[in-house]
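User: I'll paste a sequence; please echo it back and then give the predicted structure.

Assistant: Echoing your sequence first, then the prediction.
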Amino acid sequence: MTWEHPRGYDCQVAAAAEYARRTGVEVTWEFRSLQAFADAPLEELAAAYDLLVIDHPHVPLAAAEGLLAPLDGHGLDDRLAALAASAVGSAHTSYAHEGRQYGLATDSAAQVAVLRPDLLDVVPEDWDAVLALADEGRVLWPAKPIDAFSTLMTLAANHGTPVNAEPGTFLTPEQAAPLLDLMHRLAERVPDWCLAANPIEVAEALSAGDTWSYAPLAFGYTNYSRAGFRPHRLRYVDIPRGPRGVAGSLLGGAGVAVSAHASDLDAARAYALWVASPEVQAGVYYDAGGQPGYAPAWDDDRLNADSWEFFRGTRQTLEQAWVRPRYAGYIEFQDTTSPWVTAALRGEITDAELVRRMSEQAERLLVPAPTHHLSEESA
């Protein structure tokens, strides 16, 4: 099971066809919409499918609940070590938990900037330049709940005050104030529909007409940088510089994982390792619309030439990206609090109320799971 986009589905179908040709093993992929895939409980998906494309923040909870099969310890450790050595930033380790590897970063992404080079002579280097361009009505920004939340997390890490710097903490009002002020100023300068838009919708708008020319924070999609995908090509570059340069962007991407209930664990693990291999990532996987996750593909001259230097142009941001808190409660924290960020941007709740609510949820969810010890009597 994967998600409905060439970057999520077409690349896996093409890779599976090549795998069947080489090995005789057939892998059949299905998809859901990106939102439906995000909303479906991983427990249900792991019960129904052998292979899953997942987001790395799901790993701690999935590991705790025994939903995913570890990839290490089954004669594949040398190949896993080679992948770890060729990781882009923290992408590979984001699928590890408590010493076990539960997925492979076959798709690496973070919030980056995107532009129309034919409409923009000077790329904004910092947030003052971004706001100045937004004053001209030329900027878009995906700020639906999960993306507004992601922006807040990125800005916090870039300012040197990452969320959950101490377990169970969010941000103090003093830390949150400049971040939310910047987000409000940006929200006031972009179209209202941006507060319900995701990165795909922003990329579609940028690539379709000549009104807008730039978005400062949006998860990258190499598809829009390739000739012929849309009427106009987009170029992806590093995020606007802040207090820590381009460091702190929220790490996204997707990875291939094996269900603990897979009908053939060894066959599923073999496919996962194969599709993550440099040959496949820089070959059939990319050519069918995939966005490779490991450095050999990111360094590949052919792929960079084909994608308007997508990989080299965003590499610095990816290498310094911020990894979300590694707790089983994180997904509930993200799902619960994301709508509140957009609500604050709309003026439906105050910034103080947002910080208070998110702090309460952090205290509850961004902490290690309790360890239960048996008493002598119960033992």
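The longest helix spans residues 6-23. The first strand starts at residue 2 and ends at 3.
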